[in-house]
Design goal:
By secondary structure, the protein is mostly helical. The protein contains twelve helices and no strands. It is globular and about 65 Å long.
């Protein structure tokens, strides 16, 4: 089973690692592939906690966005692709159908009557994109890609956060709601501290606090603003995991992260790994 999974992982990587070729709305090269890996991590941990079929969840999470290029119909297109693709691996028909069904309903079609594996995939997918530090990184990156200034993005978080919390109503499992609540609290704390640092930077400078184009150049070592500026300035570099490595080691961002925000980076890395 692991050999089949590894082969499918390579197929997904080839399809999504550099998709789309250029930024398109909420998508940019590398995002969907990284999102897929994060959903695998979170969904499989959720499956273990509730006693669901981990293999169904693991395969479904890996393949859930394999037809993301189909846009709003990607869930149905992905399920059709899985029903066509997986039988060649001589997997049991009921196993293939459980995977395909989970993919078919993951984008908002689940109801409490669906199998637990389907509910877990849908919840993990929704949580990754909308709750926690990863979701905050996504918000900053999306707005940066649209040409928005970082200061405006930070101020816009007051309007953005309630919209994210409203999405908790779409979750179908108690565990999903528990994880979303924990990540929402973390996200609100991060955004609140970020706004305070921005206001303090504004007051200290006596003028608009704006990023200058290189990490740590616009705000000095002002803690979370340093990290937010790095995220903002590296919006087109694509992959969060690679950015995390650079934040910790210096690398392309030009400077190691200040010690004060190392705990935040560890928490961000934990979310990537699927922790609550």
């Amino acid at each position: 089973m692991d050999e089949i999974y590894a082969e499918l992982h390579e197929l997904v990587r080839e399809k999504l690692e550099n998709w789309p070729a250029r930024r398109e709305g909420y998508h940019w090269p590398g995002y969907t592939y990284d999102h897929t890996l994060r959903v695998v991590n979170l969904a499989t941990q959720m499956a273990r906690r509730v006693g669901a079929d981990v293999e169904v969840v693991r395969f479904a999470a890996l393949l859930h966005d394999v037809r993301k290029d189909a846009g709003r119909q990607h869930a149905h297109a992905g399920a059709a692709e899985v029903r066509r693709l997986l039988p060649r691996y001589h997997l049991p028909a009921d196993f293939v159908e459980a995977i395909a069904s989970a993919i078919e309903t993951h984008a908002g079609s689940n109801t409490p009557q669906h199998p637990t594996e389907s509910l877990i995939l849908g919840d993990a997918d929704l949580i990754d994109a909308n709750f926690g530090l990863v979701a905050t990184w996504r918000f900053i990156t999306i707005r940066s890609g649209r040409g928005e200034e970082l200061a405006g993005t930070i101020l816009a978080m007051d309007e953005w956060l309630p919209k994210k919390d409203a999405l908790a109503e779409l979750l179908n499992t108690d565990l999903g709601r528990e994880i979303a609540a924990a990540r929402s609290k973390r996200m609100r704390g991060f955004c609140g501290r970020l706004k305070v640092e921005l206001i303090n930077a504004h007051n200290e400078s006596g003028k608009d606090a704006r990023p200058t184009g290189n990490c740590c150049g616009g705000y000095g070592e002002a803690g979370l603003l340093w990290l937010a500026e790095c995220m903002h300035n590296n919006a087109d570099s694509g992959r969060l995991e690679m950015q995390l490595e650079e934040f910790n080691a210096g690398g392309a961002v030009g400077m190691q992260a200040p010690l004060a925000i190392r705990p935040i980076l560890r928490t961000l890395a934990a979310e990537v790994a699927g922790a609550q």
